[in-house]
Amino acid sequence: MQIITANNKHCKQIKELLKQLEYSMSDDQILERLNIYNDDFHRCFLAVINDEIAGLVALSIRELFIIQTRKAFIEGLVVDEKFRGQKIGEKLLKYSENYAKNQGCSIVELTSGKRREKNGALRFYERLGFSDGQKNYLRKNV
Known about the structure:
Blueprint: E1 2-5, H1 11-19, H2 27-36, E2 38-39, E3 42-49, E4 52-63, E5 70-79, H3 88-102, E6 105-110, H4 121-127
Parallel strand pairs: 5-6
Antiparallel strand pairs: 1-3, 2-3, 3-4, 4-5
Helix pairs in contact: 1-2
């Protein structure tokens, strides 16, 4: 397995992978995201096995104002159904953590939707050292 940075040629495979999380995006939307996620503060990494995308992780890095540090946020993690159970998600997260650390981050955060609890996502993240951040995340559509 290789972990590489996503680029425009991966658009179709990424589109199919995101459908497994019930996210529907057009090719143009994916290409737009890939163009944004192509600098030191935004990355989309792919796990590739035999030229096939087995998984994806996207992260963004923010410079914090009050605390003098950087924080990485895992925007999304998905492993293709046919590759699950092979620790690909774990490897993608570890790779992302190392990337974040090399970019000066001291914190890596993520959120896991309530609808993912039933498939063990929360337990998966806890097993990898993530814990309840003791914060309430509030949201408002604008």
